[in-house]
Amino acid sequence: MSVELSVHGLTKVHAGQSVAALDAVDLTVPPGSCTAILGPSGSGKSTALRLIAGLDSPSAGTVRIDGREINDVAAENRGVGMVFQRPMLFPHMSVLDNIGFAYRAAGDSRKRSRERAREYLDLVHLGDIGSRAVSEVSGGQAQRVALARSLAGSPKVLLLDEPFSALDPVLRSEMHDLVLELRATLDQTLLLVTHDQQEAAVLADSVAVLIDGRLEHHSAIGVAYTRPSTLAVSRLMGGMNEIEGRWDGVGIHRSELGEMEVEGVSLPAGPAVLLLRHELITLNDNGIRGVVSDLRPTGFRSVAEVTVGSLAVKVELAAGSVVRMGDAVGLDIPGGARSVVTG
Fold it and tell me: Please, are residues 227 and 212 in contact by the beta-carbon 8 Å criterion?
């Protein structure tokens, strides 16, 4: 049965530093769910995982698993598994013995530890390579072995510290599929650290955004895209459109695009930035008039830049779009594409 993971006021100030690497973070991961901690390099993501795993001690705050505070519990007794960016396998052991290491250390016979390890090797679809030396497996296979080794200890919580960032896109996608499969099989509570908002969207139920050690946003993935708390969160989630203007404090943003109604915003009247999700805007013969001033491919799709007065609004186009440079178009901006934040 899965458990809840929570941290309260979690703070870390490294020796000799005056600025906290992690600053009073409150975060709860419900049982059986996956939360992605997203943030730029140096934002405190890995620091948070190390504090939860017991690899470092917090300057303040608490870590709880299933409601029990574990600050003073040794790392090996916390019931926490961790997968790092590098597999960190024991080079002198076979694949199977790497996975069964925890059982062997706990006193199981070599035969019994291998039997138990084989179950987890099968879970990551590598049942036929158990006898191989670590040096004989590929990078993708090594990371699967590392994942199986972490799961073999039956952890209450599994921490993933950017474990797929060194893999090529195809292998990364395969690992994403595997994690989703394991979640369905094991009902595991997961906390994932990543700098990739696409990875967060694929794997996680919610996203917690860290900026300079502070938690600036925590919500379901879709909300993080369409209702970011700050400009920094919007940019991290791939937002492209920031329209300067004024907010009336009631429900209307005024800018060179005109008056635009935005629901669900609680901000005082004053200068504010209108955020428009480029994926949700469409082009038609009506709407706000503009001219296509730039077209850039983004793989299968492309992004058009539509000039409206002195503004440039970016719109993601579907594959096969016939829009061309210089076309006069209309912008259809649905309510769900709009949000407002302070500058």
Answer: no
Q: How far apart are CA 21 and CA 17, in angstroms?
A: 9
Q: Three-class SS of residue 44? A: coil
Does the domain formed by 239-341 have CATH 3.30.450.30? no
pLDDT, tens digit, for every residue of 82-108?
999 899 999 999 999 999 988 888 888
* CA torsion angle 190 240 327 296 (round to 10): -70
Same fold, 5-225 and 239-341: no
Q: Are 287 and 315 in contact (CB under 8 A)?
A: no
List the chain domain ranges. 5-225, 239-341
Rounded to 10 degrees, the C-alpha dihedral 138/144/150/155 comes to: 180
Q: Where are the beta strands (DSSP E) in 141-257?
A: 157-161, 189-194, 206-211, 214-220, 241-247, 252-255
Structure tokens at 91: 């080079």
Superfamily, domain 5-225: P-loop containing nucleotide triphosphate hydrolases (3.40.50.300)
User: C-alpha distances in angstroms, 286 versus 62, 299, 331?
Assistant: 55, 28, 7
Residue 337 — φ and ψ, nearest 5°? -90, -5
Number of C-alpha atoms within 13 angstroms, CB side, residue 25?
A: 36
Question: How confident is the model over 236-248, as pLDDT tens digits?
Answer: 999 999 999 999 9
